[in-house]
Design a protein that fits this description.
Elements: E1 3-9, E2 12-17, E3 21-29, E4 32-41, E5 47-50, E6 54-60, E7 63-64, E8 67-68, H1 69-81, H2 91-100, E9 108-118, E10 121-130, E11 135-138, E12 146-151, H3 154-160, E13 164-166, E14 172-174, H4 187-207, E15 219-223, E16 228-232
Length: about 240
């Protein structure tokens, strides 16, 4: 699993994700089957920048027949999006068709974001794709700001949903809600919230008795009408502790 988040504000779109790749397998222990989930890598890419300033993030199953899904996404970008200009609104269906054509369709979802020119104006679009449900759904509404996240969403859901305390009489006493006013988010606010959301999910799960399926560095992509760039992205590097002879 993973945690990805996409925010859309007047200035641009922000996409962020964690970096953990976990492996799950089942072991037979006596008469019982036990499911084991272990972190395999904290260097997995889940957010990608495609030609045309189109962002793609993935969540859910992270492999296909034992091969990390990141390689398949890069192949999709190279094969389908690099040769000719593609409108961001065509990518969700292309992505769905590409992965549905594979010998094994993973239980995976995507966010796809970018800008499309309508009536001479660049309009932001954010799409959610769920492979196993054949779902392609537009998330953002015209001239509105907001956010969407997928994957391990329970931590953030508990933080922003209305809650209450159980009183001595057994009745629930609602706590005063503190809403997040997406309407007034600037692009910097969106970047800060994206990093906060991924880190909060990651750090909360660290202390909980549960599978640690969110972890590693946070990658953050910004897409503006005229350009796209990485705010932060992990880079390949050599180990710095090699022995010298």
């Amino acid at each position: 699993m993973s945690f990805i988040i996409s925010l859309y504000v007047q200035e641009g779109i922000v996409m962020a994700s964690d970096s953990r790749l976990t492996l799950t397998h089942t072991e037979q222990r006596g008469s019982q089957q036990v499911q084991i989930t272990v972190p395999q890598s904290d260097a997995n890419y889940k957010t990608f920048l495609a030609p045309g300033n189109i962002g793609i993030s993935t969540f859910g199953a992270a492999d296909i027949l034992g091969v990390p899904i990141s390689g398949y996404i890069e192949s999709f970008i190279n094969e389908k999006l690099s040769a000719n200009p593609v409108d961001v609104n065509d990518v969700p269906k292309m992505l769905l068709d590409y992965f549905k054509s594979l010998s094994q369709v993973p239980d995976t979802g995507f966010h796809v974001a970018g800008y499309s020119k309508k009536g001479g104006k660049l309009i932001p679009y954010l799409w959610r794709i769920i492979l196993v449900q054949d779902e392609v759904k537009k998330i953002n509404l015209p001239d509105q700001q907001g956010a969407a996240w997928d994957g391990e969403v329970d931590v953030m859901t508990r933080l922003i949903q209305p809650v209450g305390l159980i009183g001595t009489d057994g009745k629930i006493v609602p706590l005063p809600p503190s809403v997040i006013n997406w309407t007034f988010f600037t692009l910097q606010d969106a970047i800060d919230f994206a990093i906060y959301a991924v880190k909060t999910t990651r750090d909360t799960m660290r202390f909980q008795t549960r599978f640690k399926t969110v972890g590693g560095p946070v990658d953050v992509l910004v897409i503006k009408p005229e350009k796209a760039f990485w705010v932060q992205r992990k880079e390949l590097h050599a180990e710095d502790n090699e022995l010298s002879f």
